[in-house]
Write a structure and sequence with these properties.
alpha/beta, 2 domains, nine-stranded mixed sheet, two-stranded antiparallel ribbon, 14% strand, globular
């Protein structure tokens, strides 16, 4: 299946939590309310015209928390109803799925912190169920409920499902390169991927025209009211920073504490030009991977007398000329190499050692020279690394709609080119200065036939919020460029920039 490049960290094993973020969340004082049972007034900027022309908000749906089940001790689940279309606030509603790790210090409880893992298409419910709720609740001293929610169209929240089952989804992408790196692959790739819009709209899901990030932010404001908090406390990662940024600009007077880490530049994202930042960020971090490998010398399996950069270039050229056959009957191709290299940029914790990405690239370099043992080793290493990067979920599901939800949100949110000629031209531009540019760019072809949501938000991004926004950027984040954090901290008049001098996607959990 195609490797859609979602920006999220929920699949990574959670490391010790970044103390500065925890300090921000706890240190802002008491919530302006009385906890879960407190009455919450209407949010500024969130009223809507009812069908009779009057300004009114429908009654708030309160969560009826119940245990999530024996497999998830200590967590509660609930559903909150929100309008399907905020232009019709008294019209049809949808259910948003929530999971909660409850506060343990009820006497000193400060409220609820909402969390989002990224994507688009990442499940906040799953984020809680795999253990992040326990992590964050513990760091915050048990003074918050930690709540993850599935954004509209995602997982258990009115999910967009474009295929009847997983087999049909897999078949749609069968034989599909991760991106078209050969000229004769480009037109078939574009035609197939752009047809996903026809597939999704044929299913006639009512949610499909209502998956913009602006609507997710409006939902978040309803959830804030539903739990009784008069102002929002929020922690978002990666694409979740775009949700936070959108909320901050739609509801600037409703911020209690907001922290965003791995920040997308909202101007580039909303305009469809994020690829210009992606390609630079990935190339910068990969250059660091190679530099550190050379510094480590014999301790890096991929180090070579002529330098690791030269060795990687030789490997890439060999795979571009001829795929490497593997023992399981598959072939390792140039696009797969770049996809695996991009995956490595998420987690520098997986770079070194005998079973890390440097070892995988070393085995591949030997395999393309004819070493059958190395070819077998590369297959084993790759499978193990993919499991470590994306450990299996404990959440049962008949259908994982993360691919469907990715396109449902991104294509409805961003006005992208329509013609094959444009995709080919921008793909060529994206490759200038970075081998990763086309890998990031061509996935957008899934949006070529997708109508843009009328309710999307495209700025301005310059609101002054009621409380400071903590903007966290990692110098060498190969997925969301550090420049996005710098830009956001410049736009938001009441924000603070926290910079982490390190590698990998997001800074959270990488420093004590």
């Amino acid at each position: 299946m195609t490797s859609e490049r979602k920006r999220g960290v929920w699949g990574r094993r959670w490391l010790p939590v970044l103390g500065t973020v925890a300090g921000l969340l706890v240190g802002c004082g008491e919530v302006d309310g009385t906890g879960l049972e407190g009455a919450a007034g209407p949010a500024q900027g969130s009223s809507a015209l009812s069908t009779d022309g009057s300004t009114a908000r429908p009654a708030i749906s309160r969560p009826a928390w119940q245990p999530c089940g024996d497999d998830y001790p200590g967590t509660d689940c609930a559903v909150v109803r929100v309008p399907l279309d905020y232009d019709q606030p008294h019209g049809p509603t949808i259910g948003l799925a929530l999971a909660r790790t409850p506060a343990t210090d009820s006497r000193h409880k400060l409220g609820t912190v909402f969390v989002n893992p990224g994507g688009p298409g990442g499940s906040g419910v799953k984020m809680i169920l795999v253990g992040f709720g326990d992590y964050l609740a513990g760091v915050l001293g048990g003074r918050f409920d930690v709540v993850g929610f599935d954004p509209r169209g995602v997982a258990a929240s009115e999910p967009l499902q474009c295929f009847p089952d997983e087999d049909a989804l897999t078949q749609f992408f069968a034989g599909f390169p991760q991106f078209p790196y050969l000229p004769d692959q480009q037109r078939p790739y574009f035609d197939r991927l752009s047809s996903i819009a026809d597939q999704c709209f044929a299913e006639k899901h009512r949610i499909i025209g209502h998956m913009s990030t602006a609507d997710v932010a409006r939902d978040l404001d309803r959830l804030r009211e539903a739990v009784g908090d008069q102002r929002l406390t929020y922690l978002g990662f990666s694409y979740g920073t775009y949700i936070g940024n959108t909320y901050a600009n739609l509801f600037p007077d409703k911020i209690r504490a907001l922290a965003i880490d791995g920040v997308l530049d909202p101007r580039l994202w909303s305009s469809g030009w994020q690829v210009s930042s992606d390609r630079v960020a990935t190339q910068k971090e990969f250059a660091e991977f190679l530099r550190l490998c050379d510094e480590a010398a014999d301790d890096c399996p991929f180090a070579a007398p002529g330098g690791s950069a030269a060795r990687y270039d030789a490997l890439a050229r060999a795979l571009r000329r001829r795929p490497l056959p593997l023992a399981d009957g598959t072939s390792f191709t140039y696009d797969v190499l770049l996809g695996d290299t991009l995956d490595a940029m998420y987690a520098p914790e997986l770079w070194g050692g005998p079973d890390g990405y440097a070892a995988l690239f070393a085995a591949l370099a030997q395999a393309v020279l004819g070493d059958a043992t190395a070819a077998s080793q590369s297959l084993t290493l790759r499978q193990a690394l993919r499991e470590r990067l994306r450990p299996p979920s404990r959440q049962p599901s008949d259908y994982d709609n993360s691919v469907d939800a990715f396109f449902g949100n991104q294509c409805g949110d961003i006005e992208l080119p329509r013609s094959f000629a444009d995709y080919r031209a921008i793909g060529a531009y994206a490759e200038i200065g970075s081998i990763f540019g086309p890998l990031w760019w061509w996935t957008n072809a899934g949006c070529a036939r997708w109508p843009v949501n009328a309710d999307r938000y495209v700025g301005p991004w310059t609101a002054r919020t009621s409380a400071p926004v903590l903007v966290v950027g990692n110098y060498f984040d190969g997925i969301t460029d550090y420049a996005g954090a710098v830009a956001t901290s410049t736009f938001l008049g009441n924000s603070r920039l926290l910079s982490y001098a390190g590698w990998g996607h997001t800074a959270f959990g990488r420093s004590d």
